[in-house]
Design goal:
Number of helices: 9
Strand content: 15-25%
Order of helices and strands: EEEEHEHHHEEEEHHHHEEH
Oligomer: single chain
Radius of gyration: 42 Å
Bound molecules: zinc ion
Number of strands: 11
Mean pLDDT: 85
Helix content: 40-55%
Shape: rod-shaped
Length: about 425
């Protein structure tokens, strides 16, 4: 790290570009990084740097250097990765796939020389924030919904040089919504004195985290409140897909907050261990230490409160889903009772008809039978006569009756009843 500070002259602000070296061979320059520095009161955009140029740059006299870098581009290029490891002493564990997929962590590492004197102190931490766009969330949702949320990842590595007390903050893959606020917060607030310590930068970065989490929690709260106020109108028309989609976001917000609180706890422990092992050398440093400790504590407390609010959102939403479901069940139950009443009245009417039919049936049968031409009544002789051909009646009536019964019995086999299914509608 001896070459003078020279920003890469590549004008393009894309992440990758092709350079032509002095011998005319094309080489791929990956992972161009945007760099800002703060020296005294001056904050300066230093331009685009390749990993190799970052490794060689001193950024002399700057208290703070903020770097925007693309983690995957660096991870996938062996040379860029080696340059980053050499420049900022990024440990091997940071590059693992499980670290990249994690929902939050804090880690730190000290580098000491052979005499045990501190040379540099590295920290790395990751926070996730789920931002839900309440305006684009439709009133009702089907199975396929447009994406109306974004994950903001605060994936940060800090490198503090003990000798010069310089702080390097690498913000990996900053989302366009949070990159500039993070950078500006750092550059605006970082103290102009050189008496910075390894945790100076963290408090400013975390203040922004609280701001993003606050927006995330209140956007969910607005959705929940909107559901509560429309309770009477949606009683039978509640979109369960939408309610469950909001519940999913609420669960994620609570998850990220819970992880953030726990991560803050780990960070505070490390903060205390560091200053136990390396006590502040002067009054200014001690003031800075106690201030950062108090700020971390306050931020953790605020995140805890947000977590409680987020859990409350989650519970309120579960309450609304339960109420809406109960209302629907009650409505269905009342409808069933009404159908039952109607069926009861119909049944009573049919019973009366059946009773009357049964009352007259034997007499009708008898009168029908005796009115057949097989029987004859002679008024002169005052006697009944029955034809010897009466067996014909039985010979026809019995097979026809049996055939009717058989047809009735097997009717369902030939013409099965079609079941009513929603998918057939
Ligand atoms: Zn590369």
């Amino acid at each position: 790290m001896t070459a003078p500070l020279q920003p890469n002259s590549t004008p393009s602000r894309t992440s990758t570009s092709t350079l032509v070296s002095s011998d005319g061979v094309s080489t791929r320059a990956c992972a161009m990084c945007e760099v800002w520095t703060k020296t005294g009161q001056n904050r300066t955009f230093r331009g685009l740097f390749s990993a190799a140029n970052l490794r060689n740059a001193h950024f002399d006299h700057s208290q703070l250097t903020v770097i925007f870098a693309k983690a995957d581009a660096i991870r996938e290029c062996g040379q860029c990765r080696a340059d980053f490891v050499q420049a900022f002493e990024i440990p091997e564990v940071w590059w693992t796939s499980w670290s990249r997929r994690s929902n939050g962590y804090f880690g730190s590492e000290r580098n000491v020389d052979q005499k045990g004197d501190l040379q540099s102190y590295q920290t790395w931490f990751r926070f996730l924030v789920k931002h839900v766009d309440t305006k684009s969330l439709p009133a009702s949702l089907g199975h396929n919904t447009a994406k109306n949320y974004a994950w903001y990842k605060q994936n940060i590595f800090t490198h503090w040089v003990a000798r010069t007390r310089q702080t390097f903050v690498i913000i990996f893959d900053p989302h366009e919504a949070i990159g500039s606020p993070l950078k500006d917060s750092m550059l605006d607030s970082f103290p102009e004195t050189a008496a910075s310590h390894p945790f100076e930068a963290h408090t400013y970065l975390l203040q922004e985290l609280v701001s993003f989490q606050d927006k995330a929690v209140w956007s969910i709260r607005d959705l929940v409140r909107g559901t509560e106020t429309k309770r009477s109108s949606y009683r039978l028309k509640a979109s369960y897909f939408r309610l469950h989609e909001v519940a999913r976001h609420a669960i994620h917000v609570s998850e990220t907050l819970s992880v953030a609180v726990s991560t803050l706890g780990t960070m505070m422990h490390e903060h205390d261990y560091f200053f136990r092992d390396y006590p502040p050398p002067d009054v200014a440093s001690n003031t800075s230490y106690t201030r950062s400790r108090a700020r971390l504590s306050f931020i953790r407390n605020t995140l805890k409160s947000l977590l409680e609010r987020s859990n409350s959102n989650k519970d309120r939403l579960a309450n609304e889903i339960q109420l809406s479901f109960n209302n629907l069940t009650l409505f269905n139950s009342n409808t069933s009772i009404k159908i039952g009443h109607a069926a009861q009245i119909d049944s009573a009417t049919l019973k009366t008809i059946a009773f009357l039919t049964l009352t007259f049936l034997p007499a009708t049968f008898v009168s029908g039978m005796f009115s057949m031409s097989f029987f004859g009544f002679s008024p002169d002789e005052d006697r009944w006569a029955m034809s010897k051909q009466f067996w014909i009646y039985w010979a026809i009536a019995v097979p026809v009756t049996l055939t009717t019964l058989l047809v009735w019995h097997y009717w369902d086999n030939f013409f099965p009843v079609k079941s009513v299914d929603r998918d057939d509608e």
